[in-house]
Amino acid sequence: MVMGVAGCGKSTVGRALAERLGLPYAEADAFHPPANVTKMHGGVPLTDADRAPWLAAIADSIKDGGVVVSCSALKRAYRDVLRGGNPEAFFVHLVLTPETATARVSGRAGHFMPSTLVASQFAILEPLGPDEDGVGVDATLPVDEIVAKAISRMPTHRG
Ligand SMILES: Nc1ncnc2c1ncn2[C@@H]1O[C@H](COP(=O)(O)OP(=O)(O)OP(=O)(O)O)[C@@H](O)[C@H]1O
Ligand SMILES: O=C(O)[C@H](O)[C@@H](O)[C@H](O)[C@H](O)CO
């Protein structure tokens, strides 16, 4: 799971990571009910209730493993739901400042997410705890370096 706030590079890194690992890639935004996308597009942050069916669908989709998914997974409770689908889920948190995230989201054309929502993403972001399986990586590094760092920290028995 490639996680983090809007604009951190989840889709960019997720695709590159999947290619390097020879695994399929899935975009969690594709699991949002249309109402969630409409809400975000209108500048309103999602609530826990909005995210519940979305997280349940993603959790179900990772049951068999063998896939790279980009999913914001901002709160630990959300990651708990995802781990409920697959306890071996490994999280790569792309870490960056609110300023850089805002600049990236503002500079991106054709995406539903307005940059005004970036602050709300940081407001609820809970970084990985020491007991959570995953790694935080500087999201401003070149993509291939992020991918290499993520792979170097993945448990090898999972391939
Ligand atoms: N490592 C990087 N260095 C420089 N720019 C990057 C990097 N990763 C992503 N970007 C750029 O930042 C912008 C946001 O990236 P991307 O769409 O992958 O983020 P995201 O986390 O998937 O966003 P969202 O969740 O809002 O869809 C894009 O313009 C992308 O090209
Ligand atoms: O939990 C959330 O609020 C959402 O998943 C957002 O993070 C966006 O869908 C994504 O980042 C696209 O910009």
Automatic annotation (TrEMBL):
InterPro entries the record matches: P-loop_NTPase (IPR027417), Shikimate/glucono_kinase (IPR031322), Therm_gnt_kin (IPR006001)
GO CC aspect terms: cytoplasm
GO MF assignments: ATP binding; gluconokinase activity
Pfam families documented for this protein: SKI (PF01202)
Keyword Nucleotide-binding set for record: yes
Pathway this chain belongs to: Carbohydrate acid metabolism
This enzyme's EC code(s): 2.7.1.12
Keywords on record: ATP-binding, Gluconate utilization, Kinase, Nucleotide-binding, Transferase
Family: Belongs to the gluconokinase GntK/GntV family.
Protein name: Gluconokinase
Organism whose genome encodes this protein: Actinoplanes octamycinicus
